[in-house]
Automatic annotation (TrEMBL):
UniProt KW keywords: ATP-binding, Ligase, Nucleotide-binding
Designated name of the protein: AMP-binding protein
InterPro entries, sorted: AMP-bd_C, AMP-bd_C_sf, AMP-binding_CS, AMP-dep_synth/lig_dom, ANL_N_sf
AMP-dependent synthetase/ligase domain: residues covered: 31-380
Higher taxonomy: Bacteria, Bacillati, Actinomycetota, Actinomycetes, Pseudonocardiales
Protein family according to the UniProt entry: Belongs to the ATP-dependent AMP-binding enzyme family.
Stretches assigned to the AMP-binding enzyme C-terminal domain: 431-505
Domain of life: Bacteria
Molecular functions (GO terms): ATP binding; CoA-ligase activity
Amino acid sequence: MAIRSTYPDVVIPEGSLPGLLLGSLTPEEAAHPAVIDAGSGKRLTYGELATAVERLAAALAERGIGRGDVAVLAAPNCAEYPVVFHGVLRSGAAVSPANPLNTPAELAHQLRDAGARILFTTSAGLGTTRAAVKEEGVRVEEIVVLDAADGVPSLDDLLTSTAATPPEPTADDLAVLPYSSGTTGLPKGVLLTHRNVAANLSQMQPLTELRPGKRSIAVLPLFHIYGMNGIMNVSLLNRATVVTMPRFDLKAFLAAVAEHRVDHLFIAPPIALALAKVPFVTDYDLGCVDVVMSAAAPLDAGIAQELAARLNVTVLQGYGLTETSPCTHGIPADRPDVDRGSIGLLMPSVEARVVDPVTGEDAERGELWVRGPNVMRGYLNNAAATAATIDSDGYLHTGDIVTVDDGGVFHVVDRLKELIKYKGFQVPPAELEALLLTHPGIADAAVIGVPDDEAGEVPKAFVVRRSPELDEAAVQAFVAERVAPYKKVRQVEFVDAIPKSAAGKILRKVLRATVQS
């Protein structure tokens, strides 16, 4: 039985995402600050942002980049990020955001799979990006830095273009190609159209109090779908100001919030825990903060209540996936009766089912399936993974086990999917397992997520040794040298054998039971 949102369906915007966000500015809006970089102090008004987006689109068109092409953006949060993001979209091309901490091999996989022709990065990332573009199968033709570096084209160079702006893309054109592990497996390109992303922005409107004059902070990475659409784009839609930070440091974060009088904090549970518990938080003037939204991983109700009392703020929680652009559920700011440990209500134009994963029948407790205009077109060049995720009725199977009460409030109580959430970042066990098996001293390996108070979950490896002298430190170092920092194996346990089904599938439930016992 389909469960429908209690909100009226939204009117889905037509046209392009840049057109929706920047295409009809009043003189007052054009003068309003759109983005402020907390570190450098660089500011862009809405008018300056819109002009830069048009100029970048023209420069890309001059290079023959447009509809059907992909540009990868591998950079930390900064004032230039929305310029590149929306400039690429305005050109008709799609943007594929990448983690700037990726190793050359990880970045090369994304560049190769996406078929990227151009790569935007920073001078600090040139070593990694140059190594990545040399990998076999990568066809990047040009690297552009957002700041400046000798002998490398810069964003400022492209913004001097005087060429004509290309035709505006359509709502059905591919807009964003983020990489997600989905419910299982290795990272896959998620096909999100302009309509998908714009629809989700409209769906978020009843759940946000962002308005002109409000300020949000983007300390969570903008390459993550939460940062990209749930912070940057929703702030731009509502003419709020986005304060960017390149990385999370608690003291720098608190100082930026206080200095820029940020009233909306968009965070993940580890930051919520710090705000609730760390003694020096109260040394900063945080009286400007009204709303704290936590997402990317489950937030404990007790922590939410403690944070709300400590800072005298409204604490909310949201839920979504990369494949849903991302938001499907949220706690409305005007519903203090909704349990803070829940993921709240279905957003407008979203339908859901709660399905017993064994019987396939509707159940009180079961896998969450969702359907709506924000659901991805599918996975890039992976029809099998798409079919395994989206059924013939258009429902996306999330892999999360939920309950829903009579008031339409959903709680996530477990999950089917194997994905590990480390501080909100996705860590696919299959990727770490494949890497571990390349070590000459390892005969077999399996990875699961284990609970951690600070990170939510950390990767733990179960290893069958081929070499008896192999120790925990050596395993951890081997992985750390080859993956981004958030993917590091934090715990290692040596075992005689990895439990597997008759078909050879790793029995992760057995491994989880050994951790809990």
